[in-house]
Write a structure and sequence with these properties.
Layout (H helix, E strand, L loop, with lengths): L5 H13 L28 H15 L5 H13 L8 H20 L1
Helix pairs in contact: 2-3, 2-4
C-alpha cells in the first residue's frame, strides 16, 4: 500500500493500534481472480466472446428508428469473418438473431 499523505499514515497507525495482533490480513487479488463479465473489458475476452457481446449489445439496441445504423454495424461485425476459415462470426450472428426472434415471438 502506498501512503499518499501524513493523514493516511496516521489513519493506518490508528487502525493498527485498534486491531489485535492476530487480525486477519486483507484479501489479495490473484492474477486469475473471478471478475463479473459485465466488468471485463472486451480486450480481455476471447475473440468469439467479444464478438458475441458486441452483437448482443447491438441487437439489444435495435429498434425501428435506428435500424439502418445498427444493421450497418452488425454487417461490419459479421464481415470480420472473411479472415475466418470456419465462418464462426456468421454462424454466431445467425444463432443470436434467431434466438432473439424466437424469444420475442414466444413472448408475444
Amino acid at each position: 500500500m502506498v501512503l499518499e499523505s501524513n493523514a493516511d499514515i496516521e489513519v493506518c497507525q490508528a487502525i493498527q493500534q485498534i486491531l489485535p495482533e492476530n487480525a486477519p490480513h486483507p484479501l489479495k487479488r490473484s492474477a486469475n481472480s473471478w471478475t463479473p463479465r459485465r466488468l471485463m473489458r472486451l480486450d480481455e475476452c476471447s475473440p468469439g466472446e467479444a464478438n458475441d457481446r458486441k452483437l448482443r449489445g447491438l441487437l439489444n439496441k435495435l429498434t425501428s428508428p435506428n435500424f439502418n445504423s445498427i444493421s450497418h454495424q452488425i454487417t461490419l461485425l459479421i464481415n470480420k469473418s472473411e479472415n475466418e476459415k470456419d465462418g464462426r462470426s456468421v454462424r454466431q450472428a445467425i444463432n443470436l438473431i434467431l434466438e432473439a426472434t424466437h424469444q420475442s415471438w414466444s413472448l408475444a
